Amino acid sequence: MANMTVSFEIPQDLLASLKLGVLDLSRDMRIISAISYFREKKLSLGKAAQLAGLNRLTFMDILARKGIDIFDYDESALESDLKGIAQLKK
Asked: Which domain holds residue 56?
């Protein structure tokens, strides 16, 4: 699969205000975008980690540190899954 390049211009004074270099901003933007798309359910955990340029475990660690739920189960879905698991055990 081919990679694509996305670029945009940032005023130098904005980088100075953020106290970031270009590489740091690029890394942060990838992570922030990945988190946003993951929270909006536009990307799976694996694809969001890929966008962030990280492995799944590292990306999951970042989500946990930010208090973002990795598994989005409501109570009824959890109950259904647990019943299914119980039936498989029999």
From this structure: 12-89
Indicate the residue type of 9.
Answer: E
Report yes or no: 31 and 24 within 8 Å, Cβ to Cβ: no
> How many separate domains does the chain show?
1
Residue 35: inside a domain: yes
Instruction: Write out 1-20 in H/E/C secondary structure.
Output: CCCCCCCCCCCHHHHHHHCC
Q: Which tens digits make up the pLDDT trace of 5-16?
A: 999 899 999 999
Question: Residue 59 has which token pair?
Answer: 């990306």
* pLDDT tens column, 34-78: 999 999 999 999 999 999 999 999 999 999 999 998 877 666 666
pTM: 0.76
Question: Which of 27, 51, 48, 26 minimizes the C-alpha distance to 38?
Answer: 48
Q: Which of 49, 9, 10 is nearest to 31 (CA)?
A: 49
